[in-house]
Write a structure and sequence with these properties.
single chain, 754 residues, mainly beta, 22-stranded antiparallel β-barrel, 6% helix, disordered N terminus
């Protein structure tokens, strides 16, 4: 393949033209303070095995593990206790995980999805700009198969929070778990997880940023904290606030096959009904050095407003809006009634109220032809059913973390997440018109997931083993609404009980070489949307079975330093295989509301690689690639899918590239300049099941390039950046029928006082 030849030539030319340097400087932090050398991208497999667990690794291109001191609180999102952070620091050395150092991105305008989209094995596909739906694909599995967590707790338990709403400058690390979800997270999931680890702000500090970009996009964030010493004896009180504001018109031009010109070609139009606004305000108070090492109290309020953009036909007035608030209480204690026993417990409550307003009398048959209806109203359904749907959502969560070192280098971890979730949808307007409840089914869920992990380290930590076991319980109740408002609803209930387990082994063969192998039998329980429906296009499915997956992975990591021609060369490679059973699937229909259902088994296999080359102290080059092949195992009579058919609408091969120049003390002491170029190639793939090579519904291959410059002064207290995304203005698609934005510009300024 031409693109692979290009990648090989790219690396070879860079190595030949380079010259060796004695010191490696790849990030601003390298000028700031001495650091401990970190591993390559795939976790900490190449780190010094005898390092203390509280050492933090900082290296510009290398991914890093954060210490327990660096990964704690972001107000309501601060759900990772000190004990869980310490568990993660040790366990990531053996797990199948890549860590993105978000501190390297804090002066840029990048979003979380943009950051993780550059990792091998990961593809984020969005249906539009800011505020649009985004599907994270890890090794072929996506959507609800991938758990998104903030400090170890699922985002789905935190109101209307979306991953791109979290400012990148309030994040310490982004952990990408591939085909594996650690038992310490105490959550279900079959395909992998994204864990966002937020920063702990220094005491008595203020951090503020503002960015402006194309399509009238604005992002602002601020955080501040203050420490009060000795409020009661030796106890200290830390208080703080943070918040963000996001807005975008999202009015970029897109091309769609649903809109044809007079000659039959696809036409382009402007997204004229896609404005999005969100904001969030949070406050926290931490009492430290009392009997508990830390008592944390948090509260938050947030809201969003979004216009609904039409794709196949024009939508002119329908909108959605919502708000949420929450409260949290956490406790941390080391040596909890016993030496080496660490305790953490976190409780949170959340309430959200979301609304869809679809009461317009405007009906558009396509993008250009619209009229005003006399009777039927509503733009989202072909039957003209009006919607003024409101959903109240209640969430109660309790996360318990315990870890205990019973002998030297032998640890046991216990983690339990209890969750109660309730939804109450109403639609008085639609119900009055139809004579029965059209909002969807009220329902509630209670779930318990308990994880137990055993970690063993041998031979001066050159061999590491981590075994985990999780118990899953879910009880779901749905009030099945009748076709008349005069009849009492019937309550249907279902119980799910299942187990998952995993085994991870790491062997450090020599200082620059280590290998990993892992297996996990994973379980994903049905989500509230899959069980309850949404009152619009998804009907209830109380009898869904949990998804099951058997995931295998073998990986190798090489870290070569002080080479003849280059400073450092790192390589991480993985081969993976998965067997999925009872995959939960939805087949959309424009004519009626249908439920999710369980599919026949599918299998996947693939490989991925990641190379980073520190040419000298100023130049970093990198590339990664992913191939994944998912196929249907049995003939599916329901959909007419043949055996061994390629699973559609999932990218099969993609690559990322990076070239970066950085230098410190350029114009003045403690300044830092970085200039970078990055690119992504995605091979073509089929939108529908590949029955014939003549199929026209393909998502074409794409090659996009981004460039940027970043400059900071005063020990990174003041930073500025300018970026151009999709430099060549290339047409690219994440979804069939929806082209992504073309060339766009962004600039950001950030100030930090401490």
């Amino acid at each position: 393949m031409n693109i692979r030849k290009f990648a090989i030539a790219f690396a070879a030319c860079a190595a030949i033209s380079a010259y060796a340097q004695d010191d490696e400087v790849t990030s601003f932090e390298d000028f700031d303070e001495p650091v401990v050398e970190s591993s390559a991208t795939n976790g900490d497999a190449n780190g010094n095995a005898s390092d203390a667990r509280d050492n933090a690794a900082v290296s510009g291109a290398a991914s890093t593990s954060a210490s327990s001191e660096d990964v704690t609180k972001l107000d309501l999102l601060s759900v990772e206790t000190e004990s869980e952070a310490e568990q993660a620091t040790i366990a990531k050395k053996v797990e199948t995980v890549s860590t993105i150092d978000a501190a390297e991105l804090q002066n840029t305008s990048k979003s979380v999805s943009k950051a993780i989209n550059s990792a091998s094995g990961v593809k984020v596909r969005k249906s539009g700009g800011m505020g649009s739906e985004g599907k994270i694909n890890i090794r072929g599995m996506e959507g609800k198969n991938i758990k998104v967590l903030v400090n170890g707790v699922p985002v789905e338990t935190q109101g209307n929070l979306g991953i791109d709403d979290i400012p990148i400058d309030q994040i310490a690390d982004i952990e990408v778990y591939k085909g594996y979800i650690p038992a310490r997270f105490a959550t279900d999931g079959a395909g992998g997880a994204i864990n966002i680890v937020t920063k702990k702000r220094p005491a008595n500090s203020i951090d503020a940023s503002y960015s402006f970009s194309s399509f009238n996009t604005h992002k602002a964030s601020v955080s501040a904290s203050h420490l009060i010493d000795s409020v009661a004896g030796a106890a200290n009180l830390e208080i703080g606030v943070s918040g963000y504001f996001n807005h975008s018109d999202n009015d970029y031009e897109f091309t769609s096959p649903y809109m044809k010109s007079s000659t039959g070609k696809d036409t382009s139009v402007v997204r004229d009904h896609d404005h999005y606004t969100s904001y969030n305000v949070q406050a926290f108070a931490n009492l430290t050095n009392a009997w508990f090492d830390k008592i944390s109290l948090g509260a938050s309020f947030g809201a969003f407003d979004k216009e609904i953009q039409g794709i196949e036909y024009r939508i002119k007035e329908t909108t959605s809006e919502g708000y949420n608030f929450g409260a949290s209480l956490g406790f941390d204690k080391k040596n909890f009634f016993a030496k080496n026993l660490n305790f953490g417990d976190y409780f949170s409550f959340g309430f959200a109220k979301n609304k869809i307003i679809d009461t317009s009398r405007v009906h558009c048959r396509n993008w250009f032809s619209c009229d005003v209806a006399k009777k039927n109203v509503g733009e989202l359904t072909s039957m003209g059913l009006p919607k003024l749907r409101t959903v109240e959502i209640y969430d109660f969560n309790n996360l318990l973390n315990l870890d205990y070192q019973y002998v030297k280098d032998q640890f046991v971890y216990l983690n339990t997440l209890l969750r109660y979730h309730k939804e109450n949808p109403e639609d008085d307007l639609g119900s009055e018109k139809m004579g029965f409840n059209t909002a969807g089914l009220p329902g509630e869920m209670f779930s318990v997931t308990t994880g137990i992990s055993l970690e063993n380290r041998f031979w001066n930590s050159r061999i590491q083993n981590l075994a985990g076991f999780k118990f899953h319980y879910l009880n779901a109740k749905i009030s099945n609404m009748p076709t008349s408002l005069l009849i009492e609803p019937a309550v249907e209930s279902n119980d799910y009980t299942d187990f998952s387990y995993d085994e991870n082994l790491m062997f450090k063969i020599a200082k620059p070489l280590s290998v990993k192998a892992s297996y996990q039998h994973a379980v994903r329980l049905p989500s509230p949307e899959e069980l309850f429906g949404d009152g619009l296009r998804v009907s209830a499915a109380i009898n869904l079975k949990p998804e099951e997956a058997d995931n295998f992975n073998f990986g190798i990591s090489v870290d070569l330093q002080e080479l003849p021609l280059v400073t450092r060369l790192r390589f991480d490679g993985d081969v993976f295989y998965s067997y999925y059973k009872n995959r939960i699937h939805y087949m959309s229909s424009s004519q009626m509301s249908i439920p999710y259902f369980n599919m026949n088994p599918i299998r996947s296999w693939g490989y991925e690689g990641d190379v980073k080359l520190d040419v000298n102290e100023w130049i970093l080059l990198g590339t990664n690639w992913t191939f994944q092949d998912l196929r249907n195992i049995k003939y599916n009579a329901r959909q007419g899918i043949p055996k061994d058919a390629i699973v559609p609408n999932i990218p099969r091969f993609f690559m990322n590239y990076l070239a970066e120049f950085h230098i410190g003390d350029l114009f003045s002491k403690e300044d830092f300049l970085k200039v970078w170029w990055s690119a992504n190639y995605t091979d073509e793939y089929f939108y529908g099941w590949k029955i014939s090579s003549r199929q026209s519904r393909k998502i074409e291959s794409s090659f996009t390039q981004d460039i940027g410059v970043e400059y900071s002064i005063w020990d990174n207290k003041l930073g500025w950046s300018f970026e151009v995304d999709n430099l060549a203005d290339s047409e690219s698609f994440d979804k069939f029928g929806e082209s992504k934005p073309g060339r766009s510009f962004a600039t950001k300024i950030r100030y930090s006082f401490r």
